[in-house]
């Protein structure tokens, strides 16, 4: 059994959470380096070009035996192949990856809604701009993205985004929706009334035995105002 | 021979250009739908969920025989496998894709520098915010990204980002640097003095016979102020 080590920042679900959900649903053992001693320092050290041939620009990255794989969607591509979290036909493999990359685009937009000027500045230093960008996110971008994913669920008719079985893209849709519910409870009440396949989908994923066990475990990091999905009441409806 | 059709907006290099460069370097025939009659209308029509099982959230997407593949990095993953534009070992395949996804992140940041509030508003409606975000791009983000890619070229010592042969990630670095030179000529003069592997790399790619032929051809769309890489003098140094 390959030994997995997930390298991601401590204290937030962040992009690491997409990887954690896949590892948990696959039922494979892994070490979440963030919660070991000096976790963040290990994350930084392991990205340096003098210690690895495959330095990441940013976490998360996964060490899998001798392999080092960075970028969320890339890690999921790997885990999908290894653990049956993606279909096997060529078209379906690329389709699931396409969906994952679209989640990646959405996540970047959600982050930048509270940090539209600079990731290195505090939210408090870009509040006026964040209010404008978040209004656009809630009113234009979220309907477009959620409508897209809702339509795929509806058309497929299987309860999953791709084919007859759960894939890593399903786990990612689950996490994005959970994050949006935390960040924008009012906007999401409105949007989930319109995009009616989302709520039953959330329940279906949350009730899977491994996911359910994980969500109740101490391994699940709660959402907070340090991560990608942030609840600032002034940014909701 | 599989017939390829690239679906992307007309009139800009945009994200489609990463795909065009790979197709051109691979020496495969393709139809660039953008430059056919009613190209943009065909791009929109082909994304609709009632005409395809695999609708894209946004272009580019590629039709390859019976396959439909969306998302730039995903298309390149496919073309890399099909046409020897990526190494074959597992670690190297994921490494090249990781680099490509990092280009994707950079490209999104470059776009949002001139559109920090909303992609659907004009630049003129978000000039003050664009000036702030672009300052951060030039002073913090570009040095971080270009330093990262420069370091990989330097360490590798082969002239390529991954191993001993050109990969699709190399073509993408070429295009990003070309775009940045167009958008921020002053900033890039400063940055290329610091990151000294970039300029010889550009020359090496530009002089490859197929790339060179393509760059001189009418198939190459010039940069302009409608695309991702925009030259607004007030946003440069």
What does this structure look like?
Two copies of one chain form a homodimer. Chain A has 237 residues and is α+β, with helices and mostly antiparallel strands. Chain A has a domain at 90-208: Glutathione S-transferase Yfyf (Class Pi), Chain A, domain 2, CATH 1.20.1050.10. Helices cover 55% and strands 6% of the residues of chain A. The first copy, chain A, has nine helices and four strands, in the order βαβαββααααααα. In chain A, strands 2-1-3-4 form a four-stranded mixed sheet, with helices on both faces. In chain A, helix 6 (168-183) crosses helix 7 (185-194). The longest helix of chain A has 30 residues, at 127-156. The A-B interface holds A 49, 53-57, 66-71, 73-74, 77-78, 90-91, 94-95, 97-98, 101-102, 104-105, 108, 112, 116-118, 120-121, 129, 132-133, 136, 140, 144-145, 148, 151-152, 155 and B 49, 53-57, 66-71, 73-74, 77-78, 90-91, 94-95, 97-98, 101-102, 104-105, 108, 112, 116-118, 120-121, 129, 132-133, 136, 140, 144-145, 148, 151-152, 155.
**Gyration radius of chain A, to the nearest Å?**
18 Å
Going by helix content, strand content and strand pairing, the class of chain A is: alpha+beta
Strand content of chain A: 5-15%
Looking at CATH, which topology of the domain at 90-208 in chain A would you report? Glutathione S-transferase Yfyf (Class Pi), Chain A, domain 2
Which protein chains make the most extensive interface, counting residues with beta carbons within 8 Å of the other chain's beta carbons? A-B, 44 and 44 residues
Characterize the largest beta sheet of chain A: strand count, sense, and whether it forms a barrel.
4 strands, mixed
Record the strand order, biggest sheet of chain A: 2-1-3-4
What gross morphology of chain A would you assign? globular
CATH architecture of the domain at 90-208 in chain A: Up-down Bundle
How many individual helices of chain A?
9
Number of E-type strands of chain A: 4
